Model the fold of this input.
Amino acid sequence: MHAIAARLRPLVFPALVLGSLEWYTRTTGQGSDALAPPSQAVLAFGRALLSRGDDSVLQATFFTLGSAGLGLLLGALLGISLGILLGLSRRAAAMGFLSIEVLRPIPSVALIPLAMLVFGFGYRMEISVVAFATFWPMLILTQAAVQQVEPCLLEVSQALGLSPWARTTQIVLPALVPRLFVALRLGVAIALVVAVTVEIAANPSGMGYALMISQQSLAPDLMLAWLFWIGVVGYAINVAALQLQRGVARRMGDLTGGRPP
Amino acid sequence: MSSALLTFDQVAIHLGGREILSPTSFAVARGEFVSIIGPSGCGKTTLLRAAAGFLVPSGGVVRRHEQPVTRPSREVAFVFQDYGRALLPWRTVQGNVSLALEAAGVSPAQRPGRIAKVLDTVGLSAHADKFPAQLSGGMQQRVQIARCLAQEPELMMMDEPFGALDAMTRESLQDEVSRLVRSTGLTVLFVTHDLEEAIYLSDRVIALRANPTVAKPSLAAMVEVNIPQPPDQLLTKEHPEFLRLRRELYGFLGHH
Done:
């Protein structure tokens, strides 16, 4: 009985919020253009789920996650590679310093007009903006992580006569993994935010666009449904990233498992 | 000394504007076990690092086979004091040993046999698949020694390898290293702050002094150890020669 009560505890607050919203929108706030009863939002979401058109939930979710994922992959690959280089070589870090500090503060959303000119609407434009946004934190965090690799391990690699390539892949990269996961989880959050922003601001596809359209067609029930859905998707991705982190940590001998930060 | 494997020729080391090691000369012959003792801050670890090529001396030259040592070599293995930092925590015991073979370009097909051999030598066969964090300190240090043996070096540098271990483990590892070195003919340069350990293991003990001056250079004393081999934890430490050397060198460790 206590176990069940403990499991239900986190659900008390959401239930209260949903209940009061339902009550408010059916009494005082009836006919509001901004809010709709949660029950109607569920129905609207159900219709969108069943629809086969451009506004289909699956298609929009796939578009947003696909662009966010590919953009993050691109940003992470470039950011991690350059971060390792800048972390290992003081000369490279000195050469890159000015360019990085000038380019890094550009808000990624400010790149949307340029990306639209270069790529037009669609996947490529969104991927490029997400890649730009995730590249910088990956770069900075990787560079800092490389500088924190146990110096003794680098001396071990010298004493054993490991090649520079083997030193990078067998010592530096594995030593980075725990910190890279922190960077990656940050990157996942940024990628989702930027992808949805690009869709709201410019790209006529994905979950952000669906959210915009439901707002413009004065359908607050559908809009709330999308908002809730985006939250659910974000939560699911975070849980998946955490599971991945734990799995890798277990394989790499950290028997305590990755502790959630 | 043509049979010298390693020679120190007027080697001096300055760090941060301070003279750590005043010009010091000595030679290590092939198959010899030489210990370096001295109080903290006398530069014994620095000397060892210079011998291994991790740092270049400010004056003089270290030679191995008559060639100046300028960087680490695969021929020289280095056992770090802090085994916890020197092992790859994400690799198992055999994975850690394998690293030395990968570095030496040993083909994947030959690796398991050679890994099994060195793990058997240090008595870790039963723990090949464990990660370092699952092992005791003494076992972790054995893994590091196994990795160094897999390197098949001609010279092994050991930097206070047993300093962090409890007395029981330390004694059993001393005997193991002694047996191992005598069976393989390895040449060893061994740094320790434990005088008895130095006399127990070595053919020769070099005592360094801290804060060297012109009148009192870094090299304080160099003594030959002539005690019947192989060493025995009880008999050797009761041997009159052992006690005489212990008394002679005691003052160099900062005691007065």
Summary: The domain at 45-234 of chain A is CATH 1.10.3720.10 (MetI-like fold). Chain A touches chain B at residues 150, 152-153, 155-163, 166, 170-171, 174-175, 177, 252-255 (CB under 8 Å). Chain A is about 80% helix and 0% strand.
